[in-house]
Write a structure and sequence with these properties.
Elements: H1 3-32, H2 35-89, H3 103-150, E1 154-159, E2 164-167, H4 169-178, H5 203-218, E3 226-231, E4 237-248, H6 250-254, E5 274-285, H7 287-323, H8 329-362, E6 368-371, H9 372-387, E7 391-393, E8 401-404, H10 406-424, E9 429-436, E10 439-447, H11 453-460, H12 475-481, E11 485-491, E12 496-504, H13 515-520, E13 555-562, E14 573-582, E15 585-595, H14 607-610, H15 614-617, H16 623-633, E16 638-641, H17 644-653, H18 655-658, E17 666-668, H19 669-676, H20 685-691, H21 702-722, H22 728-736
Parallel strand pairs: 7-9, 13-16, 16-17
Antiparallel strand pairs: 1-2, 1-5, 3-4, 4-5, 6-8, 9-10, 10-12, 11-12, 13-14, 14-15
Helix pairs in contact: 1-2, 2-3, 7-8, 9-10, 19-21, 19-22
């Protein structure tokens, strides 16, 4: 029985206590009166009953008001205090009981706040000691994650069920590039913690390679690895190497060496106590290389077949001319024309082949995309440091990118500067950047003495030695390595000369995914790994079981921005944002963030709230593309939102037209807040976050609200557990009993 029910019963009892004695007294007097006296009594009652009844009603009303005030001050106030105390004990240690109500309640609140402060001081001391003890382990884990994130090759670690436990940024970019269709848009990714590698790679190929590794382990192989080439659903060709992750056997764990969970032990194929707990995949996309090799093979075949016939014709013509020295002039001219035509055809085929593959032949040396202005700045610092030669910069386009070997290019620029200083005693050098088409020009400009073309030719062939530093490369080697050129030119009007190095331009690299997430992300710790998932045997793949614990499920926390608040009256979605929760961690790197063209005008009153303008949504994909991508992003996860009924109504209205239906369970933080804190006056997202000690950043953007909702939900899970709500079914049933579950859109 809750407090309000008890209050109602108390009011009824009070009414009986106030009216009962009066009615009993009247009944007793009536029974003692004779027939004549009763007539007088009735007349007296007619005169005084309205007055007595009115006085009784006033007394009853005043009594009810007094009870209500006492209920609000003592009963309801103490209930709010109990909720606050639970917050102080769990989700928000910094929260304090407000000093409201009568003196006795305020004194209790002061005592509770003092106890909370003492508890916090003790907990701070304990946590400080724990942090010191965990510092080394955390440093090693973060160091591993940081190293993995910077590797140039894609790396993915999986458990035996194919669930991804670790991946680096290179793998994330590789698989994102492989995405076809809707998953290639912002946030749509094929890879993520807890997701299955089998959604990308063929299960049979992985299983076969794992069996080969286990067989090699049984034979005592020192390098139990497997290599294979596979294709993705999009037709991309991947080269993969698989290596096992070995852990201790169950017998070793039973001896008390660990906590019983699979561990990342040092690889020891000969150790009888070790067994495979997972595997490491290093992945390389060789589609482009394979296509280029196939093109080269085809070109070589075409070149061979074509030139064989041409050489045969030339040889026959030459033999005929040699065997017939007295041939008529007209016939001789005809044979000479055949030789000339066939030679021209061979030359054309050779030139076409060289032009076709010139870029790949010249740039086989590993090159990287860099900002041209960064290269010039580094070269200027090196020249000033090594040669003490002042450097000035002329016009420079800060947006130019080059595809170069930065070290050898800086060496070449420094080498040219040293030769100018040694042979022509220049006192100042200017650097300039320009671009034309797909080429970038790096100019080294000086005033005064001119340089001959022969001198430049000589310098091109010299080793690039500067001071006591030597290099086996020549200037020509560097230029040819980049598929570029170098020439000398004069500006007669300005009495200046310059060397121009022509280099290939590079396309501007794509902006990092989830720029907004980076602004909202306050923790620098990498989030591409979770080794605890080694112990999770096909947790996500088993489906969404309503009787599984909330802590064992994967979630997609989402939010939408819309043109208005009436989905049934034509309002549309203009932005969708979502973030995944796996193993009780909010994965800020694994997000969905996409603007949507609603095909209806935006309402002016909504623009100041969500900040989205007509210009921002112009050219963006429409919902028939975005919603299927979001549906795939949320695959095999529980949906979480604040006031989810509003967002889900937009999805439901599109089910028939798009053929997309969200069948997974949905948890609403609005309803869960009403379950956890039924006596709080408001359940707005900002106020819930404040109660739970969460900093609100980026509100009223879909992704920003999804982040806040995700943090709120993670804080709610232990609070629900304190109430005995630990499974998904229990959370759904408790939420449906709240008043807010009746809201319809």
């Amino acid at each position: 029985m809750n407090a309000k029910t008890r209050f109602g019963l108390a009011v009824a009892a009070l009414g009986l206590l106030m009216t009962g004695p009066f009615l009993m007294t009247v009944g007793i007097l009536w029974a003692d009166l004779g027939p004549d006296e009763r007539a007088g009594f009735i007349l007296a009652m007619d005169r005084w009953l309205p007055i007595g009844g009115f006085i009784t009603l006033i007394a009853l009303f005043l009594g009810l008001q007094l009870l209500r005030a006492l209920f609000q001050q003592y009963v309801h106030g103490l209930l709010r205090m109990s909720e606050t105390l639970r917050l102080m004990l769990g989700a928000n240690r910094g929260f304090r009981v407000s000093l409201d109500g009568p003196p006795e309640v305020r004194e209790l609140a002061r005592a509770a706040n003092d106890l909370a402060q003492q508890r916090n001081e003790l907990l701070d001391d304990v946590e400080a000691q724990i942090r010191v003890a965990k510092a080394t382990v955390e440093e090693e884990k973060n160091r591993l994650a940081a190293l993995m994130s910077e590797l140039a090759q894609g790396v993915v670690v999986c458990n035996l069920d194919g669930r991804i436990l670790l991946y680096n940024s290179r793998a994330r970019l590789q698989f994102k590039a492989l995405a076809q269709g809707p998953t290639s848009m912002s946030g749509g990714a094929l890879i993520g913690l807890g997701r299955s590698i089998f959604s990308i790679l063929e299960r049979g190929q992985i299983t076969h390679s794992l069996e080969n590794i286990q067989q090699r382990l049984r034979k005592g192989s020192a390098e139990p690895t497997a290599n294979f080439i596979t294709t993705t659903r999009g037709g991309q060709l991947l080269r993969a190497q698989m290596a096992p992750v070995l852990g201790r056997s169950d017998a070793a764990k039973a001896e008390g060496e660990g906590d019983g969970g699979p561990t990342l032990d040092r690889v020891n194929p000969l150790g009888a106590e070790q067994h495979v707990t997972g595997y490491v995949l290093t992945i390389e996309n060789i589609t482009r290389n394979f296509e280029r090799e196939a093109e080269r093979d085809q070109a070589l075949q075409t070149l061979t077949d074509g030139n064989r016939a041409a050489l045969g014709n030339i040889r026959a013509a030459v033999e005929t001319l040699l065997d017939s020295p007295e041939m008529e002039a007209e016939i001789r001219e005809r044979f000479m024309r055949v030789i000339s035509d066939e030679a021209s055809a061979m030359s054309s085929r050779l030139n076409a082949t060289m032009n076709r593959f010139a870029d790949s032949l010249k740039t086989r040396w590993p090159l990287e995309d860099v900002l041209a202005i960064d290269i010039l700045s580094a070269a200027a610092r090196r020249i000033e440091d090594k040669l003490k030669l002042p450097i000035k910069h002329e016009e420079e386009d800060a947006s130019l990118w080059m595809r170069v070997d930065s070290f050898s290019l800086i060496q070449a620029i420094t080498f040219l500067a040293s030769r100018l200083q040694d042979h022509y005693e220049i006192r100042e050098l200017r650097l300039r950047l320009a671009a034309e088409g797909k080429m970038v020009f790096v100019d080294l400009i000086w005033s005064g003495t001119t340089v001959s073309s022969e001198t430049l030719y000589t310098w091109e062939l010299e080793p690039m030695n500067v001071g006591n530093e030597s290099s086996p490369l020549t200037l020509r080697d560097v230029v040819e390595r980049h598929g570029g050129e170098i020439w000398y030119q004069r500006e007669k009007a300005a009495h200046r000369a310059f060397f121009r190095i022509v280099l290939p331009a590079a396309t501007t690299p794509d902006a990092p995914v989830a720029d907004q997430a980076q602004h909202l992300h306050s923790d620098s710790r990498p989030e591409y790994y979770d080794f605890d998932l080694f112990a999770a045997r096909d947790a996500e793949g088993a489906g969404i079981d309503l009787d599984r614990k909330l802590t064992e499920l994967a979630y997609s926390v989402f939010d939408t921005e819309t043109t208005g608040l009436q989905p049934s009256q034509g309002d549309e979605i203009i932005q969708m944002g979502a973030v995944r929760i796996v193993n009780n961690r909010l994965l800020r790197q694994e997000i969905f963030d996409q603007l949507v063209d609603p095909r209806v005008p935006l309402k002016p009153e909504g623009i100041p709230i969500h900040g989205i303008t007509e210009a921002m949504i112009a050219g963006q994909p429409q919902l028939d593309v975005v919603l299927p991508a979001f549906h795939e992003f949320c695959h095999e996860t529980v949906l979480v939102a604040h006031n989810a009924a509003f967002d889900m109504r937009f999805f439901q209205l599109k089910e028939d037209s798009l053929g997309i239906k969200f069948t997974q369970p949905v948890l609403d933080t609005l309803l869960l807040s009403a379950v956890i804190h039924p006596n709080q006056e408001s359940h707005k997202l900002e106020l819930i976050a404040e109660r739970l000690g969460i900093n609100v950043i980026g509100r009223h953007t879909a992704l920003g609200d999804a982040f806040v909702t995700g943090e709120v939900f993670l804080k709610m899970v232990p609070l629900l557990a304190d109430m005995g709500i630990v499974t998904l079914r229990q959370a759904l049933e408790a939420a449906q009993k709240t008043y807010f579950a009746r809201i319809q859109y």
